[in-house]
Amino acid sequence: MSIEIKQELFIKASPETIYSYLTEQDKAAQWFGDITEIDGRPGGIFKVGANEVVVLGEFIETVPYEKVVFTWGGVEGLEPGASTVEITLKEKDNGTLLTLRHYNIPNQQAADGFGYGWLNYAFPLLSLVSEGRTTDLRCFREDTVLPRD
Questions:
Q1: 11-34: pLDDT as tens digits
Q2: Is residue 53, in this structure, part of any structural domain at all?
Q3: Could you report the per-residue pLDDT of 118-140, keeping only the tens digit for each?
Q4: Structural domain containing residue 19
Q5: d(CA 106, CA 116)
């Protein structure tokens, strides 16, 4: 069984700006996690997390200002790099339509957790920093761990 999550978000920032927050170490660290190691080129490391919750993968594809694809795992019972995240960026109405496709998720519990995290943590923080604001919050932070049912 393989589950896929699809979500869309409009951000009032250019695709170039958003792309940089997805692929550049210093910018990704402003919103993604207390632990953030990003090398946004094919074969580069993708590592974000806090405490014992660390997502591990690698970048598969990067098309400047259009698309970022990386593997995702190490949490929710997934081996590092077991699922894949594809983010596309399309210029729209003086901003960007971001489309997330997170696939090869092996079970519903993991899909529910990832879907909740993208929607309630990642997207709001990515929007905030891409639109030029700052925050002390992170998707993965020692005191901000995703709630479990």
A1: 999 999 999 999 999 999 999 988
A2: yes
A3: 999 999 999 999 999 999 999 88
A4: 3-130
A5: 16
